[in-house]
Every structure is written in C-alpha cells, then in structure tokens.
Design a protein that fits this description.
globular, alpha+beta, single chain, about 200 residues
Amino acid sequence: MNIATETRILIEAALAGDPDLASLAVAGSSPETLSVRVAPGVPAKSIGGSSYSPEPPFCRETLAELVVRMQHLRWQRAAPLTPLAMPPEDRDMRALHEKHLRATVGFECGPGWADLFDAVFSWLHEIAADHDWSPSQIKEKYGTLRLYWYGDLPPLGAEIIEAAEHISSHLCEVCGAPGRLQSQHGWWTTRCRDHES
Ligand SMILES: [Zn+2]
C-alpha cells in the first residue's frame, strides 16, 4: 500500500455513489508529492453509506482536501515506515493537546482517528485562528465521530468538521487504515479488516 493508493481508497469509499467521483485523480508517491483533484461541488445526497437531507453539508473538494491533509500527517508521522506498520497510538492522541490550542477536550475514541483530528485542528487554525470557538465534546457514537462545538466558525470551518465526521465512517478507529462501518450484536464500529471483531 502506498500513499496514493490508500488516499484513493479512502476518498472512493467516502464518496461512493456520487456520480462526480469519476472525476477523481490521485497522484504522487510521498506525502510531499501527493495530489488529489476532484470536480468541485456538493456531492450526491447518498454517499459512502450515509444519506443526507437535503444534501451533504460539505463540498467534494473540502472532503478531498481534508483527506489529503490527514494523509500528509499520517505518512509523515510514520516515516520511514508506513502507517500500517506504525499506526497512531494513545500518545499521539495526547500529543494533540500540546500541538493544538483548541484541542481542549478529551478524545473519547480510539487512536485511529488521531491524524484526522490533527488535520482538522491544523486546518481550522489556518482559517479561524482569530475566531472565538471551542469544541465541547469529541467522541465516537454508533461507530463514527461526533465533534460538537460552539462559538463562531466561518462556514468552511463547519464544513471541515462535518466532512471529518463523514470520513470517520471509513477510517478504522483502531489504526487509521481504510475501514468500514459495521454492526455486531447491535454494536456499531468502524474497523479495517485486521481489526474487525
Ligand atoms: Zn485497523
């Protein structure tokens, strides 16, 4: 698995069912050279196993960029190994509190989403450093991420958070590899094949 393949798998899973997914182009062989292009706009109502009404609260290009930012961090963190050999751990989650001023609440979920959080907080800092906002709770619920927040964020900020919640349903909560949402005895989790229960 290289960075482009993993990135393509993630975006294809998150946007499955969207007709404009056909426009997706992924290139590059390292975090530095990874590039993704996709037709801009709001995706179809039903994508990646989720149905939105009236429509998804994020644009296709926002989701793609968030995945690219996450993949940069994920593959840089693991270098020179691959993220599959060097998955994020609890200490990577704890480090987010040091790295990001707004990461003020605990992460009530597994470490597999650490790089996703890193990307979300980094991007939000770029676009909203001077906005008065704060997360109120960050947790796993029914197998996917919920990031509750209050205060003032620009529209793109809210979009990034919604996109992150959507991406989480395709990201193993244990190791951050591409995964799928599944239920066993009424218990929902998002897991890769290695971490399926
Ligand atoms: Zn996994």
